[in-house]
Structure formats: structure tokens, C-alpha cells
């Protein structure tokens, strides 16, 4: 019994070592592909040099959350849907049904506006607009109702928005509009003191404001740079941090010989490619190297000692 048990144990530990080793070799340790429980796939990356260059420096992974960075602030990412190509973010300083917070602008970089703008079914609700607001005058046509809801409904529908009514004894003007409006006119120009944003508005027919989805849904497009081919060959897509040229980062590489852009990890011969040098700092590569050595040592251990124990 005892020898049998111990050989099972040893077999299991071989197995664990092999699994650990193959995981290390198969996944690219240089590009983290999870931030907490949110998968990070192309075109996004949380390590510089990973993902598509167009999306560089947009995400920040902290201990508990994943954030979307824009010039106007840091927005918590609630989910990324890689099939629908959408990212839902939440602005912690905007008003919602339960909290009233003075407006601040939502500003994206030009690149963000072009590559990952708010989707058409994300609506901005501008509230407590002054009678001089452009959206009540010259740009009235930018306001609309969605799914049978008028913006005024908000003032009665939520505890926070009721305050406007209570404080002013009238119903101040309100406007549902698209990202385009807030992109071209700052909140100061729009002259509305508060805003909120709601997404998936097409599905909100008959749903009361209390149950709307507050936040913004961004829709992105994936640059077609040969990533599919790279992933098929076992690599992960990234870019050169200096030139921002596409790189297929091959998962295992013991050679530092190839710093060349490649589209296919297989094309360079198995296990060779741009590997460690692709878009990462020296410290990361240095940190990864001992792991490879440990992995190799573990493999050697299993290889040489395995037969004696099993
Ligand atoms: C990401 O967040 C961390 C911690 O909040 C911060 O130290 C770091 O500078 C941020 N990185 C970027 C690129 O903003
Ligand atoms: C939105 O609906 C309200 C109430 O039904 C109506 O008074 C208003 O004219 C509508 N606004 C637009 C832009 O259609
Ligand atoms: C609504 O806007 C007016 C100015 O147009 C402002 O004086 C008032 O404080 C605002 N209401 C709230 C609740 O912030
Ligand atoms: C990069 O590619 C060029 C042309 O294919 C080749 O001559 C050169 O040796 C490669 N460099 C490395 C470091 O592999």
C-alpha cells in the first residue's frame, strides 16, 4: 500500500510540474491575459507592447479593478464583450438615480473617439439645462426620446433627480442626446448642470428609470493586422513599443536572436520568434528568464528521476 501511495503522489507531482511547465511555455507570460476576472484579449493589452497599438495605454489593471483611461478621467470597466466588441464603463463621478453629482466633461482622445466611441445605444441625459442652453434653442434637434421615454421622466423617476424639481419648484429642461453632442460641446457650453448616461437603451421600453443601465457602452473595431494568423501559430499579438509596428509575440523563446516582426510564430521555427524582446522592458525579461531556467530544471528532474519512482 505505502509504495503504491507514494508512487501515486510522485506521479501526481510529475503531472503538476508538467502542467505548470506547459502552461508557462504555452501562454505568453509577457502579456497578462486577465485582469482580476476580466479576460484581456486582442486588441486590448494591460502590459505595454501587448494588444494593438491603437489601444495602447487605455487600460489600467489595479489590484481590484480594470480601468479605462481618458483625458477626463479613469472609468471602471464593468465588462468587455469580445464577441459583440463592446466595453461597458462607469463614470464614478456622474449622477445616477441614487446620487446627484455636478457634471464634468467626458472627453476622449481623438484616437479613442475614432476606435472606441460610445455606441449608438448609449444615451447621454443632460439635466437641469438653462433656458439658454444650445440644446433648447439652435440645437434642439439633437434631443430625442428613446424607447418611449422622454427625458423629463427622469425628474420623477429617481430619488436623486427629484431634487431638481423640489429645489426649483419647476421642471428644468432636460435632453437625451448622443455622444456626438457632448463630444463637440463641453458641458459648460451645453449649460446643463448635471448629466447621466444610460446604455442598451433599445431594450428599455417600459422599464422605469430606476432599472435603467447607467454607464456607457463603447463599441470598438479590431484592426486587421494579421492577429488571427499569429494566434493560430501560438503567439499573441502585440507591437513594437518604439515603432508601434505589429509584432506577433511568440510564447516560448530561448533565443534572443530574433527581434524581428513576425506574423507567424511557426514561420520562424517552433519556439522562436520575437519572444522576450517584444515590447517589454528589460526588467520583465530579466524576471522571466529565471522562471524559464526553473522550468527547464523541473523538466530535467522529471525526465531523469521519473523512471526511478514510477
Ligand atoms: C495605473 O494605476 C496605478 C495604481 O493606481 C498607477 O500607479 C499607475 O501609474 C497607473 N498607470 C497608468 C498608465 O495610468
Ligand atoms: C418626447 O416625449 C414627450 C412626452 O411624450 C413629448 O412632449 C416630446 O415632444 C417628445 N420629444 C421629442 C423630441 O420627440
Ligand atoms: C440647476 O441649475 C441652476 C442654474 O441653472 C442652479 O442654480 C441650480 O443649483 C441647479 N440645481 C441643482 C440641484 O444643482
Ligand atoms: C531579421 O530579418 C532579417 C531579414 O529577414 C535578417 O537578415 C536578420 O538577420 C533578422 N534579424 C534577427 C535578429 O533575426
UniProtKB/TrEMBL annotation:
Domain Wall-associated receptor kinase galacturonan-binding span(s) in chain numbering: 31-90
Residues in the signal sequence: 1-31
Membrane-spanning parts: 287-309
EC nos: 2.7.11.1
Recorded GO MF terms: protein serine/threonine kinase activity
Gene Ontology, cellular component aspect: membrane
Pfam families: GUB_WAK_bind (PF13947), WAK_assoc (PF14380)
Record carries keyword Cell membrane: no
Keywords, ordered alphabetically: Glycoprotein, Membrane, Signal, Transmembrane, Transmembrane helix
Residues covered by the Wall-associated receptor kinase C-terminal domain: 215-252
InterPro entries: WAK_assoc_C, WAK_GUB
Catalytic activity: L-seryl-[protein] + ATP = O-phospho-L-seryl-[protein] + ADP + H(+); L-threonyl-[protein] + ATP = O-phospho-L-threonyl-[protein] + ADP + H(+)
Compartment(s) where it occurs, according to its Swiss-Prot or TrEMBL record: Membrane
Membrane topology: Single-pass membrane protein
Name this polypeptide is given: non-specific serine/threonine protein kinase
